[in-house]
Specification:
The complex is a heterodimer. In chain A, 66% of the residues lie in helices and 1% in strands. By secondary structure, chain A is mainly α. Chain A has 2 domains: 245 residues, Cytochrome Bc1 Complex, Chain C, CATH 1.20.810; 111 residues, Orthogonal Bundle (Helix Hairpins). Chain A has a two-stranded antiparallel sheet with strand order 1-2. In chain A, helix 3 runs antiparallel to helix 5 and helix 6 crosses helix 12. In chain A, 40% of the residues are buried. Chain B contains 10 helices and 4 strands; from the N terminus they run αααββαααααββαα. Chain B is globular. Classes of the chains: A mainly alpha, B mainly alpha. Chains A and B meet through helix 4, helix 5, helix 10 and helix 16 of A and helix 10 of B.
Chain lengths: 418, 284
């Protein structure tokens, strides 16, 4: 995809460096001349947004660590110290906390876009699987990060989630003790979560580099799902994709900063402003909003072990999505039945989130079970079947054909005028 | 297609009405009533604290609440910081000097007491939790530093709550006001099971029975600015003070946020125009 490098440095320093380590060439080929399909829409800007959110989280996190104390006696007060006494600490802390939420908003949109346009299909299976791995690392990092302020929900969330591992047959108890570093969620737990919360983002960077590498080998998918066939189908990354991504990023940041500055606590839990107290259990223990759909799947199954398996399984099946989807056509645009199914599974996923936020009683239990059943039905039964039974609409012969058809005669008549 | 959409809308609306009715009934069973809304000066994008109100609220805290409730996160110096009460340096020193703190050890290794300075934390009413519980019939008077952030005054059914709270917030300040003013005679069916020494308060988070006796009475404090110290006035003032204590950098945050969001909006417009110009050359 990258093709032959056209990098020809005029700056003597760049030429000197490039002859010895072709890093400038790599950057130039990856972010300047790299060809991207000309028909990418705004759903394709979330990869870039995610990259910036990751950097934003790492920078704010590193600075927060300069003032944070990972100890059960001091953690809560040290976060308050950041909010009250550190210069701009109030904003820094909220930027990081709200940033986690917006990181997940962006990743959910990014994943949904991949599902809609069939971006996981050959030859992009590894690209997709690396993406699922990134999502898992993000989930682990986010969970451990939420424990660090050592509020009530931090503590009880950690307790509930680590306790899940007690469902493992025979080794359940030893595993939980090993995870805690003791016989309860205590200082050892907090310190190891802190250690891992600082480590995992760097693991994340590693997997993201592989993800981008795989992307640059196969090239980007596009809304038609038809592969790039000639230079006619693409535009250069710079200025085209850079500008479009920058605009989308800027709009995303308008919403993000509006939350940071004007509704910083909206996406969190009030009870987490109360210091962790192992003797007082909150009325409703719920995880951060971005785990709620999976939390609902966990609770939908009456058996603890099976519930844990279903929860992890609900993400694990994304790994085999390229083989579960039997259709040769990538984009939902040309798959009338799959298109309906896509929107249904989006609604189901969102509804699972609502179920996860509410106490497991009465009809919420039934709703959670029906939705969980449909979730697995979609991926394990409907997706393979529909791929075989559905008659796709005719595909455009190329991306540029699709673009011309979309623009009608308008573009053709506009062309000679230039 | 249009019929399908109409049908779908009808189903969604119908279901939400049925479920919504159920949720409303449930909220009533929980005995926690919604705190009445108050138009505080610090709400909204341009909201600022009312300095005089914060000073009045501090007086209420100092003369009434602080007998039992600590504020561990606060130091006397905070009273002089911008965006809050903005007391003068001398006023802060004078407030601090009213309290004795334990310091040391001195050169001989002994602890001693001295008047507090602005750098000291607020004096605590009790040396530890056990002492506080012992003096209050087993109930622990919670620390008030973050009370308006950790308690919620507004409770709505699940399907509207996220939308309303995006605008109104969680109602923490309203919660404090509602608890302070919300003491009532218990309804007959509850009164017969009233726990001894507890008071009925339908707004209390762990309610409806609260150990704290009604703390405010008419003219419990004398305001220097001549404001009439009604129970409602004192409750409103102390709620504002506690909101500031929970979020002392709110004014800095909001004024910076306005610049940040405005800058990003303008940049978005410029980027859009640039993008449009550049992409205009290419069919897409």
């Amino acid at each position: 995809m990258s093709g032959h490098s056209t990098y020809n440095p005029t700056n003597p320093v760049m030429k000197w460096v490039d002859d010895r380590l072709p890093l400038p060439r790599l950057m130039y080929d990856s972010f300047v001349t790299y060809p991207v399909p000309r028909n990418l829409n705004y759903w394709y800007t979330f990869g870039g947004i995610l990259m910036i959110m990751m950097v934003s989280q790492i920078i704010t996190g590193i600075v927060l660590v300069m003032h944070y104390t990972p100890h059960v006696d001091f953690a809560f007060n040290s976060v308050e110290h950041i909010r009250r006494n550190v210069n701009y600490g109030n904003i820094l802390q909220k930027w990081h906390a709200v940033g986690a939420s917006f990181f997940f908003i962006a990743v959910y949109i990014h994943i949904a876009r991949g599902m809609y346009y069939g971006s996981y299909k050959a030859p992009r299976e590894i690209l997709w699987m690396l993406g699922v791995a990134i999502f898992l690392v993000m989930m682990a990092t986010g969970f451990m990060g939420y424990v660090l302020p050592w509020g009530q929900m931090s503590f009880w969330g950690a307790k509930v989630i680590t306790n899940l591992f007690s469902a493992v047959p025979f080794f359940g108890e030893p595993i939980v003790t090993w995870l805690w570093g003791g016989f309860s969620v205590d200082n050892a737990t907090l310190q190891r979560f802190f250690s891992l919360h600082y480590l995992l983002p760097f693991v994340l960077i590693g997997v993201v580099i592989l993800h981008v590498w795989a992307l640059h080998v196969t090239g980007q998918n596009n809304p038609t799902g038809v592969e790039v066939k000639s230079g006619q189908d693409t535009v250069a990354f710079t200025p085209y994709a850079t500008l479009k991504d920058s605009f989308a990023l800027c709009v995303f940041f308008v919403i993000f900063t509006a939350f940071v500055f004007y509704a910083p606590d909206y996406l969190g839990h009030s009870i987490n402003y109360e210091e962790a107290n192992p003797l007082s259990t909150p009325a409703h223990i719920v995880p951060e909003w971005y785990y709620l759909p999976f939390y609902a799947i966990l609770r939908a199954i009456p058996d603890k072990l099976l519930g844990v398996i279903a929860m992890f399984g609900s993400i694990a099946i994304w790994f085999i999505l390229p083989w579960l989807d039997t259709s040769k056509v990538r984009s939902a645009t040309y798959r009338p039945i799959y298109k309906q199914m896509f929107w249904i599974i989006m609604v189901v996923f969102f509804a699972l989130g609502v179920v996860g936020a509410n106490p497991p009683e009465g009809w919420w239990i039934t709703a959670g079970q029906i939705l969980t059943f449909y979730y697995f039905l979609h991926f394990l039964v409907l997706l393979p079947l529909v791929g075989l039974l559905e008659t796709p609409k005719p595909l455009p012969s190329s991306i540029s054909d699709a673009v011309l058809a979309k623009n009608g005669g308008k573009q053709a008549s506009a062309q000679p005028a230039e | 297609m249009k019929t399908t959409k109409t049908l779908l809308a009808a189903i969604v609306l119908g279901t939400s009405l049925v479920l919504g009715g159920g949720a409303a009934v449930k909220a009533a069973e929980g005995h926690i009533e919604n705190a009445p809304n108050i138009d505080f000066s610090f709400e909204g994008v341009f909201g600022k604290f009312d300095r005089a109100q914060l000073q009045r609220g501090f007086l209420v805290y100092k003369q009434v609440c602080s007998a039992c409730h600590a504020m561990d996160q606060m130091s006397y110096r905070n009273l002089g910081e911008p965006g809050g009460l903005e007391l003068t340096v001398d006023q802060v020193k004078a407030v601090a000097a009213e309290y004795e703190v334990t310091a040391g050890p001195n050169g001989e290794g002994d602890m001693f007491t001295r008047p507090a300075t602005p750098a000291d934390k607020f004096a605590k009413p009790f040396p530890n939790k056990q002492a506080a519980q012992n003096a209050n019939g087993g109930a622990y008077p919670p620390d008030l530093s973050l009370i308006t952030k950790k308690r919620e005054g507004f409770h709505y059914p699940w399907y509207v709550s996220p939308f309303i709270k995006l605008v109104t917030g969680n109602g923490g300040p309203e919660y404090v006001h509602a608890v302070l003013t919300g003491y009532k005679d218990a309804p007959a069916e509850l009164a017969k099971d009233a726990p001894e020494g507890k008071h009925f308060n339908p707004y209390f988070a762990a309610g409806p029975w609260i150990s704290m006796a009604p703390p405010l009475t008419e003219d419990a404090v004398e305001y220097a600015d001549g404001t009439k110290a009604t129970v409602d006035q004192m409750a409103t003032d102390v709620s504002a003070f506690l909101t500031w204590a929970g979020e002392p950098k709110m004014e800095e945050r909001k004024s910076m946020g306005f610049k940040v969001v405005l800058y990003l909006l303008l940049l978005s417009v410029l980027l859009y125009l640039t993008k449009k110009r550049v992409w205009g050359r290419e069919p897409h």
